Amino acid sequence: MGAIKKTKAGSFQASAYDERGVRHRQTFKKQSEAQAFINKLEAVKYDRKLVGAKLKRSRISLNIALDDYMITKAGLAKKTLAKYEFAISTFKVFLTSLNLVYVDQFTPDHGALLFKLLIQGNDDENGETKRAKPKTINQFLQIVRSFFKLEVEKGHIDRSPMLHVKNLKEEKPRPEYYSEDELKAFFAVDMPESYKNAFMGLLHTGMRINELANLTWDDVDLNRRLVHVRSKEGFSTKTDNSERSIPINDTLYSVLQRITSSPMSKTYPFCSITGKKLSDRRLLEASKEIGKSANIKGRVFLHKFRHTFATHLVKKRVPIEAVQKLMGHASILETMVYTHVRTEDLHSDVALLNSLGQPTVDESGALSTTAQIFDILTGLAA
């Protein structure tokens, strides 16, 4: 136990030993403050004894735990990793403001406070309240939840303090896509051959622009008519599910054969006009210029080709599970956003049941095989 000695000046000197046997002395104006100092050292000493006897968990620093968590995300794509880094740095600011040091100090009440701060927004210099979009808030919460889930798995805490915090309802916008007429107008515009090849690649594979830009000749198998999207040195797919093999339809096969007959790059099938790696910024600028010349009224952006790929597959009645695999979606819920385009076809769908209960049954086969799927897009902008 520690000791308190009253000095001649009327103050109180506290003296106590920590768990390592090191003596600590400190002077206080009040005896109660001196006693609190001793009690704190004794509490830490007692906790260390319990941990040493395996009767209590060792307390884990939040900063160290968060840094360890980020190490597990090192393999993520650059843009995705940036989102995690921003979320974790923001979360650290929140923890510091509350003087929270250890993982087990974060309670469900802190989780509720975090949620409240996220949804209330901030006032700008004009006095207007700016709030983050529900999608942004949900992404932030998902990262914090996954951190505490990992801490539970490590045995640092028994239960996640974020379980009661639910996502905000999101109004998912319908994906924008190019119509067949818009595609014909777009590809009718005079443009550099390398850009046309890149746009055709995006349209007929549904790849993200960074996936197409990092595609190498080693990833293209013309004999088996497959394009392999996979991580490699200097490039990581968005998720593990993003690694996939995409069949090459007839239109894309013709494009690739034409490229192989006179390749501009020994490394990249789809390259810049100088034979170097594609720049998404320059390709975006080119697409906007071409879209303007083609009198396309809606927005023109590179990811719209990916939406177009998925949308036209769904419109042609390709099973949603097949579209999910082709898109490299981790969850089929991501793919379900494209199903709205078939609403106008529901009457014909229900009409397939006309023969039920009738003397003559007329069975109609639905499109379902992978081989048929890729003939569908062959006619797009061919």
Tell me what you see in this structure.
With 382 residues, the protein is mostly helical. The protein folds into 3 domains: 3-52; 62-154; 180-355 and 365-379, Intergrase catalytic core (hpI Integrase, Chain A, Orthogonal Bundle). Helix content is 46%, strand content 8%. It has helices at 31-52, 62-71, 78-97, 108-120, 134-154, 180-188, 193-205, 209-213, 250-261, 280-293, 303-315, 320-327, 332-335, 346-351, 370-376, and strands spanning 3-6, 12-17, 23-28, 122-123, 129-130, 220-221, 226-229, 244-247. The strands form 3 sheets. Strands 1-2-3 form a 3-stranded antiparallel β-sheet, with helices on one face. Strands 6-7-8 form a 3-stranded antiparallel β-sheet. α2 (62-71) runs antiparallel to α3 and α7 crosses α11 (303-315).
Structural topology:
Blueprint: E1 3-6, E2 12-17, E3 23-28, H1 31-52, H2 62-71, H3 78-97, H4 108-120, E4 122-123, E5 129-130, H5 134-154, H6 180-188, H7 193-205, H8 209-213, E6 220-221, E7 226-229, E8 244-247, H9 250-261, H10 280-293, H11 303-315, H12 320-327, H13 332-335, H14 346-351, H15 370-376
Antiparallel strand pairs: 1-2, 2-3, 4-5, 6-7, 7-8
Helix pairs in contact: 2-3, 7-9, 7-11
Keywords:
8 strands; 3 domains; 8% strand; hpI Integrase, Chain A; 3-stranded antiparallel beta sheet; mainly alpha
